[in-house]
């Protein structure tokens, strides 16, 4: 039992903590040691409505009343998770080693949702902000694939981004509900060379600039980004607030960075080093982070953090 | 067959061949089609078709089908020429953007972007560029035309 409103351990009896941590540690979420032993160094986070789902080789769901429940075990550890506010209880999970599964509320098992998808590692997942049945998956060494029928069928849509003279793996993917000027919205990707984005018509990967592509055209040259993310750092997690799409959070080795304008100006909010991030679908100030040793959350947009579960 | 039947059959044949002639020789312009705010004319589309064959088809394909495997980057890191038909993404761009890309290349709208799309400024006149894009637009199905008309309308400053 965990209460997201209270910083950890207190409301939990010692047995509760041990039971919870036992489960979570086994999931490879809170300790690098067991994570290595289990062959998974990744864990995944997603908000499902106001509940937080944490997945590794086990999947825990923390509801806001403080109850942590265990969901059916996935076939292999989970590397990335995605959930859409209009489809509560439905989760898409990228599996360690390749493949993608779907879980529906109340279900007993995860079901394969990767028909037509090559069996390569899915490195990142996102659900289209405005189309809850449209799912994007980034494949290692390959590119972006799209399903428009909630994982029933897939088609290739775009190569991986080209940055600093090479194609880059997509480490994290976010559908950001900001107009691209091309009749759709943007898909942002975090790579080991920073953030890039592509319109959802998939014409081309491009840098984040102020305004939409049309503004850049009108101005002739775009205004230089005023405060970009630090160069040369991998972006291991990037999430957009569903209820405030211009609000982005990024996890870098240098900490948690926040943008209030769709990624033009970034501010370093905390030195927290997170592997995974998730933002509450209703409250854009409420974010969760997995630091490899702790599961943390912040209710003030990343300035102060409380530990939800710790060793 | 009755006399009337023979007559009707003859009429159908005549109409059929007339329609075929129209589709093949004269150029049909979808109703209401505009480029940069001006109505697209049949002469413009006919000119555009010639300009396309001479300047664009070599990369974008004689049938506007794009290069093979056009979603996969080449070894150079650059993207192949995409189709200009409904399978591509040309119809996601506003008129002004299409005009700018064709005249100046892709880096004119995405600064610093490296691509194999040449800018045609100096090679083609503005009227020829407008004509070739009017021709491309005239080949799109209704849905794509409607989508692109909306993108163009939403484009700040419009045409």
Outline the secondary-structure elements.
The complex is a heterodimer of chains A (311) and B (159).
Chain A: H1 14-26, H2 32-37, E1 44-48, E2 51-55, E3 59-62, E4 68-71, E5 78-82, E6 91-95, E7 100-103, E8 111-112, E9 122-127, E10 135-139, E11 143-147, E12 155-159, E13 162-163, E14 166-167, E15 172-179, E16 185-191, E17 194-199, H3 213-219, E18 237-241, E19 244-252, E20 255-259, E21 266-270, E22 276-279, E23 287-290, E24 294-298, E25 306-310
Antiparallel strand pairs in A: 1-2, 2-3, 3-4, 5-6, 6-7, 7-8, 9-10, 10-11, 11-12, 13-14, 15-16, 16-17, 18-19, 19-20, 20-21, 22-23, 23-24, 24-25
Chain B: H1 3-24, E1 34-35, E2 38-39, H2 42-55, H3 57-60, H4 95-104, H5 126-138, H6 142-154
Antiparallel strand pairs in B: 1-2
If you had to describe this structure to a student in words, what would you say it looks like?
The complex is a heterodimer of chains A (311) and B (159). Chain A is mainly β and 311 residues long. Chain A is built from three helices and 25 strands. Residues 1-41 of chain A have low confidence and may be disordered. The termini of chain B are far apart. In chain B, helix 2 (42-55) packs across helix 5 (126-138) and helix 4 (95-104) packs across helix 5. Chain B has a two-stranded antiparallel sheet. Chain B contains six helices and two strands. Residues 1-25 of chain B have low confidence and may be disordered. Chain B is globular and about 40 Å long. Chain B has a single domain (3-154), classed as Orthogonal Bundle (Cytochrome Bc1 Complex, Chain D, domain 2). At the A-B interface, strand 12, strand 14 and helix 3 of A face helix 4 and helix 6 of B.
Short key terms for the protein model shown above:
heterodimer; A: 311 residues; mainly beta; Methylamine Dehydrogenase, Chain H; 4-stranded antiparallel sheet; 3 helices; 25 strands; 8% helix; globular; disordered N terminus; B: 159 residues; mainly alpha; Cytochrome Bc1 Complex, Chain D, domain 2; two-stranded antiparallel sheet; 6 helices; 48% helix; 3% strand
């Amino acid at each position: 039992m965990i209460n997201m409103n209270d910083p950890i351990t207190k409301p939990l009896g010692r047995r509760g903590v041990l039971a919870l941590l036992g489960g979570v540690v086994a999931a490879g979420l809170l300790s690098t040691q067991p994570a290595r032993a289990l062959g998974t160094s990744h864990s995944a986070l997603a908000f499902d409505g106001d509940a937080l789902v944490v997945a590794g080789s086990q999947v825990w769901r923390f509801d806001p009343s403080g109850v942590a429940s265990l969901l059916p075990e996935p076939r292999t550890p989970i590397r990335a998770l995605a959930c859409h506010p209009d489809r509560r209880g439905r989760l898409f999970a990228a599996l360690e080693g390749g493949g993608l599964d779907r879980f529906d509320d109340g279900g007993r098992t995860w079901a394969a949702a990767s028909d037509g998808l090559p069996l390569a590692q899915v490195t990142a997942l996102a659900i289209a902000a405005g189309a809850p049945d449209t799912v994007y998956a980034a494949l290692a060494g390959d590119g972006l694939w799209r399903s428009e029928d909630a994982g029933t069928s897939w088609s290739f849509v775009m190569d991986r981004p080209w940055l600093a003279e090479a194609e880059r793996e997509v480490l994290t993917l976010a559908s950001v509900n900001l107009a691209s000027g091309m009749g759709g919205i943007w898909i942002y990707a975090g790579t080991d060379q920073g953030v890039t984005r592509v319109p959802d018509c998939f014409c081309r990967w491009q840098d984040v600039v102020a305004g939409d592509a049309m503004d850049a055209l009108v101005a002739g040259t775009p205004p230089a980004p005023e405060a970009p993310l630090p160069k040369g750092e991998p972006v291991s997690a990037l999430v957009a607030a569903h209820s405030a799409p211009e609000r982005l959070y990024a996890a870098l080795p240098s900490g948690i960075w926040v943008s209030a304008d769709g990624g033009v100006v970034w501010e370093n909010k905390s030195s927290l080093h997170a592997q995974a991030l998730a933002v509450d679908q209703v409250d854009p100030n409420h974010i969760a982070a997995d630091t490899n040793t702790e599961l943390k959350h912040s209710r003030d947009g990343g300035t102060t953090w409380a530990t939800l579960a710790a060793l | 067959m009755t006399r009337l039947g023979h007559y009707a059959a003859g009429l159908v044949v005549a109409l059929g061949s007339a329609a075929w002639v129209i589709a093949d020789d004269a150029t049909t312009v979808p109703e209401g089609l505009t480029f940069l705010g001006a109505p697209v004319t049949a002469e413009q589309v006919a000119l555009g078709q010639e300009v396309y064959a001479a300047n664009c088809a070599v990369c974008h394909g004689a049938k506007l089908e794009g290069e093979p495997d056009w979603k996969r980057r080449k070894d150079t890191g650059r993207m192949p020429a995409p189709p200009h038909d409904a399978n591509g993404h040309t119809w996601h761009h506003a008129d002004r953007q299409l005009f700018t890309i064709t005249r100046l290349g892709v880096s004119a709208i995405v600064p610093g972007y490296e691509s194999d799309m040449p800018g045609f400024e100096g090679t083609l006149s503005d009227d020829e560029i407008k004509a070739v894009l009017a021709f491309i637009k005239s080949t799109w199905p209704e849905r794509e035309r409607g989508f692109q008309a909306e993108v163009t309308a939403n484009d700040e400053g419009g045409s």
